[in-house]
Design goal:
3 domains, five-stranded antiparallel β-sheet, alpha+beta, Hypothetical protein af1432, 13 helices, four-stranded antiparallel β-sheet
């Protein structure tokens, strides 16, 4: 066996690596050869877009993994626990996901009310909530990810915390992190905005751009979150990093400390991506949320400045090119909702419900696009355009 060959996730690819094997049929990828040296980030995006998840690199002919990126299946973070839940389809998981999501929403509402009155947060209260969410994520993350798309602008702060937590856990699961870490990032996500309980409501809910003075006050919520959470006995550093660093930027232009690159922990870098993704896809009193596919393009654009570009690719891997809950138009003129993500991210499982040509409802039906050659996604559609509420 050639010791120079390594099987890695596509999220770990970088320019200068030599692809030894794309691990897919020649007809299913856009390159002339199966083996070649990566010269541009565009080539990496093409590999991801083709639905490829694992590749084999030759470190003798090109760059090796970065030091901070342990090999797949060999990192202590990728240890899988023996009692990992059985896998379910997104539809099979939906009932339990709804219970977990509702439980988390009630918890964060009560917790923020209590924090406003100066009460400390007890991890014993958080753990049962995170346990239900994490178990659902491990069975199938797309059930919860789909639910997190259903948002109400008047309770944004509460729902953002739950959605943030769900996205962080799905992100960690996709990266192969341990169940312990998945739970810790979930806790960090749920508590990351606790400092906003001290932010004046007129600034927190202002339906317009903040003045420079108001923005200074708004930024204080990160510092306040840290102060509140420092009083929480047993809170892990992973959870704290998420709360303290989710507004730091990869190029050093974030806040509150202006940390740069490796000064920001892995979990802080992940949280920065999740925070922007969730904020931009949510409806607010001052703007209509963007479609997930549009926001993913922005994340890629901001890779290298706002965000770690490697982690942006990993995040896209976790939510899919067409995230659960997205509305898509098929080439047969049927409108469909994305239900579950396949290994080939271009071909998810969808539920058709409307004939767009006749604008008439049709019997709801699940279609696994990965098993069909004739039906494809043409484009992403806007929920607002079609006035669709699920």
């Amino acid at each position: 066996m050639n010791d120079m060959l390594k099987k890695i996730s596509v999220s770990q690819l970088r320019e200068g690596m030599y692809i030894h094997d794309l691990k897919c049929d020649w007809l299913n990828h856009p390159f002339v050869l199966n083996s070649f040296k990566l010269k541009t980030d565009t080539e990496i995006r093409k590999i991801i877009a083709a639905g490829i998840t694992l590749v084999e690199i030759d470190t003798e002919k090109g760059l090796d993994l970065l030091v901070e990126e342990p090999q797949l299946e060999k990192s202590p973070l990728t240890k899988v626990v023996d009692n990992q839940p059985k896998k379910f389809t997104a539809l099979e998981e939906m009932g339990k996901a709804k219970v977990a999501f509702s439980m988390a929403g009630e918890f964060i509402t009560d917790m923020m009310s209590n924090a406003k009155m100066g009460q400390h947060i007890e991890l014993e209260q958080v753990n049962p909530v995170i346990n239900k969410l994490s178990q659902s994520i491990l069975r199938n993350p797309n059930a919860l990810l789909g639910l997190s798309r259903i948002r109400s602008m008047d309770v944004y702060t509460f729902e953002h915390s739950v959605s943030f937590s769900v996205l962080m856990m799905a992100f960690a699961k996709s990266m192969g992190l341990s169940e312990k870490i998945i739970c810790e990032v979930g806790i960090g996500g749920l508590l990351h905005d606790i400092g906003k309980t001290l932010t004046p409501d007129e600034i927190l809910n202002k339906p317009g751009k903040l003045t420079p003075e108001e923005f200074v006050i708004m930024k204080q919520h990160v510092v306040d979150s840290r102060k509140i959470l420092e009083k929480t006995v047993g809170l892990s550093k992973v959870s704290m990093d998420i709360a303290a660093q989710h507004h730091e930027k990869y190029d050093g232009n974030g806040y509150p400390l202006g940390l740069k690159g490796g000064q920001i922990s892995l979990y802080g870098q992940m949280a920065a991506i999740v925070d922007v993704y969730d904020a931009l896809t949510a409806d607010r009193c001052y703007h209509e949320g963007k479609e997930p596919s549009e926001v993913l393009k922005l994340l890629v654009k901001w890779g290298g400045t706002h965000f770690n570009p490697r982690l942006v690719r990993e995040f896209i891997q976790s939510v899919g090119i067409y995230p659960a809950g997205s509305l898509v138009m098929l080439n047969n003129h049927h409108l469909a909702k994305v239900i579950d993500i396949n290994d080939n991210m271009l071909k998810p499982v969808v539920e058709v419900f409307l004939n767009a040509k006749t604008r008439s409802y049709i019997p709801r039906k699940l279609i696994d696009l990965s098993k069909l050659d004739t039906i494809k996604i043409l484009k992403v559609e806007s929920h607002a355009k079609w006035n669709v509420v699920f």
